[in-house]
Amino acid sequence: MTKEFGVPPVVFPSGGNPTVAVGGNTQQRRVPTAPFQPPRPSNSGIPFMSFEVGSAAATTSGPIGGGTGPIGGVANFDDEEPLLDELGIHPDQIWKKTKSILNPFRANPTFHKDSDLSGPIFLYLSFCLFQLLAGKIQFGVILGWIVVSSIFLYVVFNMLAGRHGNLDLHTCTSVIGYCLLPVVILSAISLFVPQNGALRSGIAGVFVIWATRACTNLMVAVADGGEEHRGLIAYACFLIYTLFSLLVVF
C-alpha cells in the first residue's frame, strides 16, 4: 500500500530564483550571494598590499612612499663614524696616554688633559687577569680600591689647592687608572718571580716609585694649585700604589 504526498510544484521565474507554492502562496528562496570584497586601488603605494607580481616588482625599486634611495641594496656607510668613536673609545689616544706613562721622568700631560675611562678599564681588566693567573680572584677588591683611591686623591688635592683647585673626579680617576700601568707590569712579572722573597719586594718597590712619580707629575700638570703641594700629593699617590702592590706581593 503506497501513500502519496502532495508536493507543491516549483516554479522558476525569469529572475532565476526558484519559488515554491505552498497553499496557494508563492514563497521565494534566497540564493546566497558572494561575500563583500573591497575595491582594489589601481596604484597602491605599499608594495606588499598589491597582489600583482608585476606591480610589486615595479614599486620596490625605490623606498616606500617615493624617493631615490635603495632599500634592498648596499647602503653607503662612507659618511658613518667608526663604532669605537661613537662609543667614545679612541685607541690612538689610549696608546699615546699609555706610552706617556712608560717614561716616569717625562710624563706628557698634554694627552691626559682630555680624560677618559676606556684606558683605565682596559688596565683594570689586565690587572685582574694577571692576578687570576696567579690564583687570586680580586675583581671586586681592585675595582673598589680604584674607586676609593680616586675619591681619596680628589679630596686631598682639592683641600690642598683650596680655591684654586680645579681637579674633577673624572680626571682624577683617569690619571690614577693610567698610572696603574706599572702595577699591571709588576703583576705580570710576578708570575715568574718566587713568592715571599726579598727580590719580589724589591721589584715591587721600584714599580711603586715609578707609578707614584708618574701620577704626581700628571696631577700637578693637569690641575691648578698643586705645584706647591707636590710632596703631599706624592705621599698620597705613594700610599695608593703601595696598596695595589700589596695585592701582588702577598
TrEMBL record:
Its main location: Golgi. Residues 15-42 are annotated as: Disordered. It is a multi-pass membrane protein. Keywords: Membrane, Transmembrane, Transmembrane helix. The keyword Transmembrane applies. Pfam families: Yip1. The chain crosses the membrane at residues 117-134, 140-160, 172-193, 199-220, 232-249. Residues 101-247 form the Yip1 domain. InterPro entries: Yip1/4-like (IPR045231), Yip1_dom (IPR006977). It is found in: Golgi apparatus membrane; Membrane. The keyword Acetylation does not apply. It comes from the Eukaryota. Belongs to the YIP1 family. This is Protein YIP.
